[in-house]
């Protein structure tokens, strides 16, 4: 993407509806980060965004609708792309660093953690989070596809699974063990995933 797309529900780019939509969805994420899913309310979002509560209810229906739309909007608004270093291991390390950053740096960390908690409490939020993560994984998979083109890993390598392998230990430490993630941890995860990919571990045997 080369420009910011129109947020969901916008009537026309740059119009008042688009501005109000962006304000509401941005306010939803801000409120989620500050108060968590349990403290996320339409009233708070309306006050923070400056959009009337009745309008928020009419367009998004409530907290779950707001959160689903906000996660979709966030994925579409931010033109994120993985860092290229020239090697698969380096690229996977950069991805792992991005995950750590996303959960430990303010204010992104609070929003990321609250989104996970919301997905555990709400099927609607869970579906929205799955879509958000699928988008990130597909974008990240580009670095594996480029490694295939360089001859660094074999043809038929499942790029998304390589990405999952590299970042899963980071998520486990952060969200399950609730422990710090060191640079050594990140390098180990990237190295293991890259070594396994080079050995053909992610090529389908069917």
Automatic annotation (TrEMBL):
Locate the DNA-binding region by residue range. 41-60
Tell me the InterPro entries matching this sequence: Homeodomain-like_sf, HTH-type_TetR-like_transc_reg, HTH_TetR, Tet_transcr_reg_TetR-rel_C_sf, TetR_C
Q: Which Pfam families would you find in this protein's record?
A: TetR_C_11, TetR_N
Keywords from UniProt, A to Z, are: DNA-binding, Transcription, Transcription regulation
Q: Which PROSITE patterns match?
A: HTH_TETR_2
Q: Any idea where the HTH tetR-type domain is? A: 18-78
Mind telling me what this protein is named?
A: TetR/AcrR family transcriptional regulator
Which species is listed as the source? Nocardiopsis changdeensis
């Amino acid at each position: 993407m080369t420009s910011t797309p129109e947020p969901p529900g916008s009537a026309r780019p740059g119009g008042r509806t688009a501005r109000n939509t962006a304000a509401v969805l941005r306010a939803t994420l801000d409120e989620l980060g500050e108060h968590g899913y349990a403290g996320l309310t339409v009233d708070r979002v309306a006050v923070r965004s400056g959009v009337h509560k009745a309008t928020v209810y009419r367009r998004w229906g409530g907290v779950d609708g707001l959160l689903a739309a906000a996660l979709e909007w966030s994925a579409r608004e931010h033109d994120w792309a993985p860092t290229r270093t020239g090697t698969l291991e380096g690229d996977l390390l950069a991805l792992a660093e991005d995950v750590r950053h996303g959960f430990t740096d303010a204010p992104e960390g609070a929003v990321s953690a609250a989104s996970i908690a919301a997905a555990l409490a709400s099927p609607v939020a869970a579906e929205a989070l799955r879509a958000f993560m699928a988008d990130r994984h597909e974008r990240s998979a580009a670095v594996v596809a480029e490694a295939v083109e360089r001859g660094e890993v074999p043809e038929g390598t499942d790029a998304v699974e390589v990405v999952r392998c590299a970042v899963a230990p980071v998520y486990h430490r952060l969200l399950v063990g609730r422990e710090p993630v060191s640079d050594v941890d990140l390098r180990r995860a990237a190295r293991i995933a890259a070594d396994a990919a080079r050995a053909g571990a992610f090529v389908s045997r069917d």
